[in-house]
Write a structure and sequence with these properties.
CATH architecture of the largest domain: Orthogonal Bundle
Distance between the termini: 48 Å
Structural class: mainly alpha
Order of helices and strands: HHHHHHHHHHHEEHHHHHEHEHHHHHH
Radius of gyration: 22 Å
Largest sheet: 2 strands, antiparallel
Helix content: 55-70%
Number of strands: 4
CATH topology of the largest domain: Hypothetical protein af1432
Number of domains: 3
CATH superfamily of the largest domain: Hypothetical protein af1432
């Protein structure tokens, strides 16, 4: 398959004065949607400190780690047939930078809240919103959003399905809503049904059998879930997992939410139990004292060591199920490393994400989003900004109109959504001279 075909854009031909993927990278970086990630929660709530990570710094780290993976793979496989399919630095960094661009305010809790209010109108999911921004809402093109290349968009398809294909409405518990909307976690998908035409354009170079296999999904305990990802996506996802398991761990240690006792009980002891052949807990023991030294410079070196530990052992495998190599090749980590990384992610989840102090903030954010959506939905002319209201009026159906409201709220930062909430609902807040 021609590389030229994969570098095509939906709108307009490239002059090729520089690599097309470098253009994609620039369009992401200069997008307002990307800049707003600095005001969106990663794990810890914004405002707690200027040290802890946001969605923006997380995305920068994912791009950097993905670039490191590609550099390592290029060296390992430079004399093999796989070499020509390994993405360039510009391409993989673009995918890493853009992978979270569609996430809602207030983290995954905000995503659940938007899925709840959109439950009868096509739902909401952060990855699908990412694709919507890149193909429609972005600033570069009136009709095609950021108008990225086909291969960049393929790399952003983490779950090749539309919302309706993988949703299981039976798990949603209307009885507890809206005060408890935990059951409204969205299915993992990369497209809303209203945006499915873009998937067809992205996958045009693949044969029909490859597309059919690529979009297969299985039943899980909640929703259905897709089985496959492109080669580039597999690299980005490994980088995302490493950033979450290692860099978010750093924040938790710096905040003293994870202590050395937690580390011993929930990491070293667990690894020893799972892998008794490891010598004294493997890599976890080697860096234990450095992680909890109380000195930023020493802790940072330990974090860097951990990242390199995972990155350096990533390999390429051929799955043998697709005709096209961009689907058939996959970047993987050895099974024991995947298990170790899962242990690191679990300690962050247990001691940070799931604690009541964090969940209280998540719950508050969810309730603000629900009330904002309901208020704007009932009073769009009064409460929706003019440019969004004009777009709202051009829609033919109620679901399409609500999608515009959803786009508006999903694009908000945590702070913007909070100020808008208080402007509408807090009597002492708000003025005709306010400029949100």
């Amino acid at each position: 398959m021609s590389n030229i075909l994969w570098q095509e854009r939906k709108q307009g031909a490239s002059t090729r004065e520089r690599e097309d993927f470098a253009r994609d990278r620039a369009r992401i970086i200069h997008s307002a949607f990307f800049r707003r990630l600095q005001g969106k929660t990663q794990v810890l709530g914004l405002g707690e400190s200027d040290f802890y990570r946001t969605r923006l710094t997380h995305s920068l780290e994912v791009a950097q780690i993905a670039g490191g993976i590609v550099e390592d793979l290029q060296e390992k496989y430079q004399h093999t047939d796989y070499a020509k399919y390994i993405p360039s630095q510009n391409l993989i960094e673009t995918i890493g930078l853009a992978h979270d661009i569609g996430h809602a305010p207030f983290g995954h809790g905000g995503e659940v809240a938007l899925n709840y209010v959109m439950r009868d109108d096509g739902g909401f999911e952060g990855n699908a919103q990412t694709m919507r921004i890149c193909t429609q809402l972005g600033e570069y093109s009136e009709e095609d959003g950021l108008n990225l290349t086909r291969r960049t968009l393929l790399g952003l398809i983490k779950y090749p399905a539309t919302y309706s294909q993988v949703v299981n409405h039976t798990i949603y518990d209307e009885k507890k809503a809206p005060l408890n909307i935990d059951s409204f976690k969205p299915p993992k998908c990369s497209f809303f049904d209203c945006d499915s035409a873009y998937f067809s354009w992205i996958t045009t170079p693949f044969c029909s059998d490859d597309i059919k296999r690529f979009t297969e999904f299985n039943q899980t305990a909640s929703h259905f879930k897709t089985q496959f990802k492109s080669f580039d996506t597999s690299i980005m996802e490994l980088a995302d997992d490493i950033a979450y398991g290692v860099h978010d761990l750093e924040d938790a240690i710096a905040l003293h939410l994870i202590t050395q006792k937690h580390w011993q009980n929930e990491v070293i002891d667990v690894i020893n139990h799972q892998f008794p052949h490891y010598q004294r807990g493997g890599v976890a023991v080697n860096i234990s004292d450095d992680l909890f030294s109380g000195r930023n410079r020493i802790r940072k070196k330990a974090i860097s060591y951990l990242v390199n530990y995972f990155v350096s052992q990533i390999e390429i495998v051929k799955q043998g199920v697709f005709e096209h190599e961009l689907l058939d090749l996959k970047a993987i980590m050895p099974e024991n490393l995947c298990a170790e990384l899962t242990v690191l992610k679990n300690i962050v989840s247990t001691n940070v994400i799931e604690i009541p102090e964090v969940q209280t903030l998540v719950y508050k954010g969810q309730q603000m989003i629900v009330r904002l959506f309901e208020a704007i939905d009932s009073n769009p002319q009064r409460l929706l900004e003019k440019k969004h209201y004009d777009k709202y009026l051009r829609q033919d159906t109620l679901s399409a109109k609500r999608r515009i409201i959803c786009d508006y709220i999903a694009g908000d930062t945590d702070e913007y959504a909070t100020r808008l909430y208080h402007k509408i609902f807090t009597p002492s807040n708000g003025s005709v001279f306010d400029r949100l």
